[in-house]
Amino acid sequence: MGGKKMDAKKGLLIALDGGEGSGKSTLLKMVKDFYGDEIVISREPGGSPYAEEIRNLILNSPNAEQADALTMFALFWAARADHLKNTIIPALNIGKIVVSDRFDSSTYAYQIEAQGARDLESFFWKMRDRYLRKYKPDIYIYLDVKPEVGLARKNMQQDEKKNHFDKRKLDFHYRLREGFKEFFAQKNHGIKSVIIDAEKSKEEVFEDFKKIISSLK
Ligand code: TMP
C-alpha cells in the first residue's frame, strides 16, 4: 500500500532569490497582500526562532566580517536545517505554499562563488541531499538585475540597513550573479528555475510571479 504516497509532501516549496537590490522585499510585500494566508512567506538566514538567532550572529555580529566562506557555509546550513524542520516542513505538511526569501541557491552564489570557496562545491551537493532530502524546492525564482542597478537601488532606500555582504565591492556582486546563474543551470541536480528580469517594473515582476504560481498549482 501507498507508504510513499502517505509520505508525499503536500504543499509547494518555492525559493526566491536575487542579488542585492533585486526587489525581493517589494515583491514579497505584494505577494503577502495578494495571497494572504495561502502563501507562507519565510526567509533565510532565519525563518524559525533558532535560525533567527543564527541570522543575528551572521549579519549583526561585529566579528562577522572576519568569518570566511568555510565558517559561513556551515552557519547557513545549520540555520537552514532548523528553518526546514520547524517552519517549512510543518507548513508543507498542511498543504501550504511556502516562499522562502533566499535558500541554498544563496549559499552556492555567496559562499562558493562570490566568497570563493570553490573547493566546497561537491560537498555542497552532498549537504544538499542530506539536509534537504525530499524537501528540495519545487522551483527557484531568481530576480535578475545588473549589480550596478541593484546596488544603486539599495543606496536609494535610506531605511534599508546594509549588511556586510551588501557593502562589498562591485566585483563581488558580479561573481554573485555568475554564481546564481551557474546554480540555476545545474539540471543534473534536478534544479528547476525561472529567471525574471527584475529591471522591469514591480507590477510586471509580480505578474510574472503570479503566472509561475498558477502553473505550479
Ligand atoms: P537579506 O535577507 O537582507 O538578503 O540578508 C541576508 C544576507 O545573507 C544576504 O546578503 C545574502 C547572505 N546569504 C548568504 O551569504 N548565504 C546564504 O546561504 C543565505 C541564505 C544568505
List the helices and strands and how they pair.
Blueprint: H1 3-6, E1 12-18, H2 24-35, E2 39-43, H3 49-60, H4 69-93, E3 97-101, H5 104-114, H6 121-132, E4 139-144, H7 147-156, H8 170-184, E5 193-197, H9 202-216
Parallel strand pairs: 1-3, 1-4, 2-3, 4-5
Bound molecules: thymidine-5'-phosphate (TMP).
Thymidine-5'-phosphate (TMP) binds at residues 43-45, 76, 102, 106-107, 110-111, 163, 165-166.
Kindly list the characteristics that best describe this protein:
globular, binds thymidine-5'-phosphate, 13% strand, 217 residues, 5 strands, alpha/beta, five-stranded parallel beta sheet, Rossmann fold, single chain
Describe the structure.
- There is one protein chain.
- With 217 residues, this protein is α/β, with parallel strands linked by helices.
- The protein has a single domain, classed as Rossmann fold (3-Layer(aba) Sandwich).
- Helix content is 53%, strand content 13%.
- It has nine helices and five strands.
- The chain has helices spanning 3-6, 24-35, 49-60, 69-93, 104-114, 121-132, 147-156, 170-184, 202-216, and strands at 12-18, 39-43, 97-101, 139-144, 193-197.
- It has a five-stranded parallel sheet, with helices on both faces.
- Helix 5 (104-114) crosses helix 8.
- It is globular and about 40 Å long.
- Thymidine-5'-phosphate binds at residues 43-45, 76, 102, 106-107, 110-111, 163, 165-166.
